[in-house]
Write a structure and sequence with these properties.
heterodimer, A: 170 residues, Arc Repressor Mutant, subunit A, 8 helices, B: alpha+beta, two-stranded antiparallel ribbon, 4 strands
Chain lengths: 170, 122
């Protein structure tokens, strides 16, 4: 996964906080979108903040600055996945309401419910395929799985969507 | 939205998902970057707080000990050490020991034990 901005990454690796700030500005929205697709709105931005803080400290270990975007996305995904598991655990014990973010439009509520019915990895695969238009190989890098597993997740997501739509209850 | 059971996504699903994902984050990129830079660069007042908290805790411990020590004398003045006069001023070499004694529970008074029988004068 190419990210461009290799010089900015190299400057950040050398310890320039200003360069790292530019990287944050460049990738913030995309990373928040990815985290939202996995954990939902309420915790997404915290996950990205944590991943970015961690990235700052681990940046010198990044061998290829051109792969910064995929490297960061992988960290964001892992944190969002962990947060999603905790969220599910808390909801089982009734510690958090089922949905804490209000959407204004009915269609958005339907889509949010539909996405919530899928497991986190399938949601991430749908998001990275449709919204970010990544290849299976790129998605595999972010999710730390191979391209075949990406296709399997997408196929299962389609089947689930199919069953939900047949019931007419998205 | 209607779902066609083939390799494509349901009609309108992809567009709806893109719209859903395009919602503005509560924190805009520039603000996110500013906050992150702030967390990466400790400000002087943060360094100041690093030693202020332990100092405040130490002061609290000293006050608590002093308060506990005073409480021991709540029942009345402690006995004056034998051979020591109040307001003794020592001239010459410092005596071997200095005694802190509360003649009055509210007013701590320092007494200095003379090192020699004639070592002090009032």
């Amino acid at each position: 996964m190419e990210s461009g901005g290799g010089d900015t990454v190299r400057a950040a690796q050398a310890g320039d906080p200003g360069a790292f700030g530019r990287l944050v500005e460049r990738h913030w929205c995309e990373m928040v979108r990815l985290a939202r697709s996995v954990v939902g709105d309420a915790e997404a931005e915290d996950c990205v903040q944590d991943a970015l803080l961690s990235a700052w400290h681990a940046l010198p270990s990044l061998a290829d600055p051109e792969r910064f975007r995929g490297w960061l996305a992988r960290s964001v995904f892992r944190r969002a996945l962990r947060a999603s598991r905790w969220k599910r655990l808390r909801s089982w014990f009734g510690l958090v309401p089922e949905r804490v973010v209000r959407h204004e439009r009915e269609a958005e509520i339907d889509l949010a419910r539909l996405m919530d019915s899928l497991p986190p990895r399938q949601r991430a695969v749908l998001h990275l395929t449709i919204v970010e238009e990544m290849s299976d190989r790129e998605i595999g890098e972010v999710l730390s799985i191979d391209a075949g597993s990406v296709r399997a997740h997408r196929r299962r997501a389609r089947q689930k969507l199919s069953s939900v739509y047949r019931k007419g209850d998205p | 939205m209607t779902f066609q059971d083939d390799d494509d996504w349901p009609d309108g699903f992809a567009d709806a998902l893109r719209r859903h994902a395009a919602r503005t984050p509560s924190l805009m990129p520039a603000e996110a970057a500013r906050r992150l830079r702030e967390r990466l660069e400790p400000r002087p007042e943060r360094r100041y707080r690093q030693w202020l908290a332990p100092a405040a805790a130490a002061a609290a411990v000293v006050l608590a000990l002093a308060s506990a020590s005073r409480m021991r004398h709540e029942d009345g003045p402690a006995p004056r050490p034998r051979g020591v006069e109040r307001s003794t001023v020592v001239v010459g070499p410092l005596p071997d020991n200095i005694v802190l004694w509360w003649a009055d529970p509210e007013t701590p008074v320092y007494f200095i034990l003379p090192s020699t029988p004639t070592g002090g004068q009032s």
